[in-house]
Amino acid sequence: MQYTSTILATSAALITSVSAHGFLTSPQPRMPGSAMEAACGTQVYDNQASDNYGNIQGELQVAASQTDYNAAECDIWLCKGYKYADNTDNVQSWTAGQVVDMTFDIRAPHTGYANVSIVNTATNTIIGDMLLYYSDFADNAKTIPANETSFSITVPNDLGDTCSTAGACVLQHYWNAESIDQTYESCIDFTVGGSGSSSVSSSSPVVASSTSASSSVLASTSAQVVSSTPAAVVTSSSTRVSPSTLQTVVKSSSVVASPTSSAAVPTETPDDDDEC
Fold first, then answer.
1. According to its UniProt record, which protein family does this protein belong to (predicted)?
2. What pLDDT score does 193 carry?
3. Which candidate, 248, 249, 243, places its Cα nearest to that of 219?
4. Using CA atoms, how far apart are residues 245 and 231, in angstroms rounded to an integer?
5. Which of 110, 127, 243, 248 has the highest count of CB atoms within 10 angstroms of its CB?
6. In angstroms, what CA-CA distances link 144 with 10, 100, 136?
C-alpha cells in the first residue's frame, strides 16, 4: 500500500537522521540541491537536505523505497550523491604547494578510519596518494584529538592540468565508521592553477594515529585493503597500490600498513594529539 510505503520511507529518514554524525564545514563543501534531487530522487534528497551530516547507508535505505532513484546518475558513493552543479558558486581556487586549512565537525564519535584525498570525479578514484590518513578516527572510547577536527593539507604539485577545470576534481573527506557500519563523505570543489615549489611533495600520506611514534610504524609492504563495494582502479603516477575512495588501509595490531611508494617513507608518525 502507498500509505505503508510512505510510513516506511519516513521512518527510514528519521532513523538515518538520528545517526548522522560528521561533515566538513570549511572550506565550503558540496551540499544537497536540485541537481542531486533530479539524480537521486526526492526522498534521498529530502533525507540529506534535512541533515547533510547523514551517511551513505542511510541514503541507500531510503532509496530502496522510492521509484525515482537512478543509481547510475546519483553515483551515491561519490560525495554521497552531492553534485557539482549545486555548488558552482563555491569552487575553491588553489595553487600547487598551497596549504589549505580545513575543519571537520564530528557531532558524535564512532570508531573507524578516515582519509582526505583528491578524487577524480569522472572515475571516483584517488589521484596520486592520500593526503591525510587516520587509522583510528573518531574513537568513541577517547577524547577526540584536535587534529581530527582541525587540520591542513598541502595541494600536490604534480596534478598538471588534471584539476584545472571546475568539477573535474574534489577534495574528499572519507570516514568509514566501522563500529556502526556507516560511511560519511564530504567533498570540496576546487581548481588548481599556477606552479608550486619543487620542494613540495605529496608522494606519501601524512598518517595521523592514536598510537605513539614508537609503537606505530609505516610498513613498506603492499597494503592490505578491505571494501564492502567493488574495488576501484586508482589513478596514480607511481606504481604503488593506493586505496581508493571505496577502499582503505587497515592496521594489523600496532602496525599501520601503508602502500609502498617510490618516495621516502616518513621516519616519524604524528600523534593524534599533534596538529597535522
1. Belongs to the polysaccharide monooxygenase AA13 family.
2. 78
3. 249
4. 9
5. 243
6. 32, 21, 10
